[in-house]
Amino acid sequence: MSFKNAAFFLKYLLLYISILMNAYAVEMKSGVDEKGITHVRVWGLAQGPGNTSSERAEWRVLKAFEKQYPNIRLHNAAGLNLPGVGNENDVGPLLAISGGIAPDILYVNFRKSASYIDNEFLYPLDKYITEFAKNNGEESVRHLIHPALEKVVRRLGPVEGQKEKKTWMIPADPLVMTMIYRKDLFARSGLDPNEAPKNWVEMYEVCEKVVEAEPSNYGVFATARDGTSWNFMPYLSSSGTQVLEEDEEGQWKASFAKEEAVAALEFYAKLHAGLRKDGKTRGFASSNKSHLNEGKVAIAMTYLGGDEMAKVDTSGAQWGFAPVPEGPSGISSAEINARMWGIFRGQKDKRVRDAAFQWLAFRKSREAVKIRVDTFIEANEISAINPNLLDRLGSEYEKYNVFINQDLKKLYKNLIESANPEPYGTNCDLVYDYLDKPVQRAILWAREGNLESKSPEVIKSTLLSFLREGQKDLEREMLDELPIEERKQRRIVATIVTLLLFSLFIFTFYRVFKILSPQSMKGRAWSFKKYWQAYCLLLPAVLIVALWQYYPLLRGSLMAFQNYKIAIPIIEWVGFDNFADVLYDGNFWHSIWLTFYYSFLVILLTWLPPLFLAVMLDEIPRLSVFFRVLYYLPALISGLVVIFLWKQFFDPSPQGLFNQIFAFMGGSQQFWFEDPHLAMLCLILPLAWASLGPGCLIYLAALKGVAPDLYEAAEIDGANYWQKIRHVVIPKLWPLLIITLIGQVILSFNAAENVLAMTGGGPNGATNVTGLLIFKKAFVYTDFGPATAMAWIMSLFLIGFTIYQLKILSRLEFKTTGDD
Fold it and tell me: Contact 180/321 with Cβ under 8 angstroms?
């Protein structure tokens, strides 16, 4: 090895070692090091003093903990934010668990808590709490776990194969649903800034006046895409209806398909689709949170309490606070929630678990409360803290009560006492997925003008049918209320279908082997002795393919017959139940149909259009290079930039670019990604725009291989322009066209990233293609068995395309341009 080569090798070896060291530093593992320091990975740990008083307070609490416990070192664990699926805290911990990098302290959402408990992700905390009460007094437990949240954090869960009532999580301060409103917008609209709307009628009048005074403003913040039912919940509760109710035996039952709920659904649909006084524009609600932050939205329903107090001006100068407006029956119902943290049961080191609880307890201690309050006092933002924190600090801090909004403090206390918790039972992490369907159907139906044109009886019956269909789906698919006989029948059908499926895969493997085996090699021996050097060269590649392709395939085959749980090493075989659930899952078959539709649109807009563009570029006498560069430029833009650029174009508000163009041309307002009829097309257009140039250049290069003599012969025979394309260009490029077509089909069937980034599968599941559904099923809901079964069934649709593609490739002979 020469000195130059040695230096080159050493340089990259040092670079590789540096990368490994940096990776280790970023993703510190849990455990106790040689110095006796216990390392704990915490979800969402403060990373610095931040820019707000709330962030500085959390940082100071962390530093105080490290000072008090020098033998414990906390490290941050973070995750992904998936649009349409959930925010970082909702989805991130589950993705981390799925990836085998679960933090020691998990963030737990109310509605996902049952999944965390049932999947045995959480370690029971009762022994820790008993010891904590012994050392600090029984009163300390009340501060550790707020009484209003006790029934959520303490409930039945699996412990060593038995169901026991345990405490699984430590909650932060309660959050309670409150109506906030902008006093300045009220004043500019001629409304009393100190008088909040008390019921739905007054609220709708406020929305009309705010929009009439300034059309670019909005009456209320409420989403109309996936997750919209979370915003619908306050209205549903104020109608006297709950999504789910828990019976005496602890079983959860769907309960929202009631006549009382129809009024809430109609009112929510009117907020999104009510006709403004101009007679053309619809809706008083904005789904864009930036509008709320910019002061363009008059009313919003939000949680208050804990750190949420610091996100709005609680002094009463800018924002007003009031209970959720009353429904027709005079009910004003608030929802209580809280951030919660638990210890990951997969952490087997008791020392790490002990240190984790020390941190959870310290965050709720009087010392931590004092640090938070002092931080806000130093910043002259005492009004932004939770008003109940001062009460805990005693007489020393009574003087600061004058800076607290006493009306807000009283409201907060009253709402907590009467609030209902967000649904938190088994499979409740799916509750908004199923409630979204009737809510979004109602909004779409209202946008078609039906609330103005239909009779009250028709409106009531239609909306009630939406609710009943949604509840039926929820009961069948989420709560799994399936008769035993039907379950047996499904297993028989699933067994037959699955056996046929795997038989087809074996036949496919045989066909692929036959296609790729050269005729000249059939019947000949492997000749290991003669070609041992070649086999040695192939061995690493074979091992890599086996490890990363065939082992996951085999492992996935087994997982499809298991009730696979990440945190539990016990394998529970369920036979063909996963395939039975998938085969009878309407959402899965709808996603298959959407995948075919997506594939059709991709082919329509990205297969032949680049060919025609290439033909035109091949014909133009001048500026050919300029047009090639122009068409190729979109491909140089980052995929995320393209996505966010087009999302701005498709803004559904009247101020959106495309809506302004439509309005200029005399067209009506379109809702783009919020319209199930348009969402898929809007999803494909950015892809077509970005891929048109590269496809064009590929076809343009292939056109150079078409001999000019063929064009001349066609002209002599009297062929016109289109006949030359049909009889000369297409036959010559047919193999390339077919390969491109099959590749587009296969890629579109596996498409999930673009859909996830653009729509998250919405609206109302209109873009929830199979690839995205499988991703959600596996990594968001941790149902790996059904997700794997879905993947197997979906691959059935690609078998024929794969064989046909291999057949064509095996017969092709590639030549350079100009070769005979």
Answer: yes
Residues 686 and 759 sit within 8 Å (Cβ to Cβ): no
Cα–Cα distance, 7 to 1 (Å, whole number): 10
Q: Are 333 and 237 in contact (CB under 8 A)?
A: yes
Distance CA 565, CA 118 (A): 10
Assess whether pLDDT exceeds 60 at residue 10.
no
Query: Using an 8 Å Cβ cutoff, are 748 and 764 in contact?
Result: no
Residue 27 pLDDT more than 60?
Answer: no
Closest CA to 114 of 59, 80, 86, 156: 156
CA 133-135-139 angle, 5° bins: 40
pLDDT of residue 85: 59
Annotated domain spans of the chain: 28-173+340-403, 175-334+419-474, 582-638+679-811
Please give the CATH topology (third level) of the domain spanning 175-334+419-474: D-Maltodextrin-Binding Protein; domain 2 (3.40.190)
Q: Which long-range contacts (CB under 8 A, 24 or more apart) does 735-739 make?
A: 735/808, 735/812, 736/698, 736/699, 736/702, 737/607, 737/611, 738/808, 739/805, 739/808, 739/809
Omega within 30 of 0 (cis) for the link into 763:
yes
> Are the C-beta atoms of 94 and 779 separated by less than 8 Å?
yes
Average of per-residue pLDDT values in the chain: 83
Q: Would you tell me which CATH number, out of the four given (3.30.70.270, 3.90.180.10, 3.30.300.70, 3.40.190.10), belongs to the domain 28-173+340-403?
A: 3.40.190.10
Q: Which residue has the tokens 């399936």?
A: 482
Cα 182 from Cα 781, distance rounded (Å): 38
Q: Ranked by mean pLDDT, which of 440-449, 634-643, 735-744, 755-764 comes out on top? A: 440-449
3, pLDDT greater than 60: no
Contact 733, 699 (CB under 8 A): yes
Distance CA 737, CA 728 (A): 14
* Residues 295, 184 contacting (CB under 8 angstroms): yes
Element (H, E) at 193: none
Model confidence at 25: pLDDT above 50: no
CB 127 within 8 A of CB 354: no
| Residue 216 backbone phi and psi in degrees, to 5 | -80, -10
Residue position matching structure tokens 């996951």: 552
Tokens of 273: 């689709």
Domains 28-173+340-403 and 582-638+679-811 agree in fold: no
| Residue 435 CB-half CA count within 13 A | 25
The answer to whether 467 and 269 have CB atoms below 8 angstroms apart is no
Under 8 Å CB-to-CB from 747, ≥6 apart: which residues? 602
Can you tell me the mean pLDDT for 297-313? Answer: 81
pLDDT tens-digit profile of 63-95? 999 999 999 999 998 766 665 555 667 777 877
CA distance 681 to 685: 6
Q: Which residues sit opposite 286 in a β-bridge? A: 221
**Confidence label for 105 from pLDDT (cuts 50, 70 and 90):** very high
3-state SS of 547-585 is HHHHHHHHHHHHHCCECCCCCCCCCCECCCHHHHHHHCC
Query: Which of 529, 467, 538, 14 is closest to 262 using CA atoms?
Result: 467
Minimum mean pLDDT range among 236-245, 376-385, 518-527, 714-723: 518-527
Which candidate, 321, 325, 358, places its Cα nearest to that of 341? 358
Cα 820 to Cα 148, 257, 618, 698, 731, distances in angstroms: 83, 72, 21, 20, 16
Q: What is the pLDDT of residue 87?
A: 63
Superfamily of domain 582-638+679-811 in the CATH hierarchy: MetI-like (1.10.3720.10)
> CA–CA separation, 613 vs 657, rounded Å?
27
Which of 570, 497, 510 minimizes the C-alpha distance to 792? 497
What is the reported pLDDT for 59?
94
- The answer to whether residues 209 and 190 touch, using CB atoms and an 8 Å cutoff, is yes
DSSP 778: I
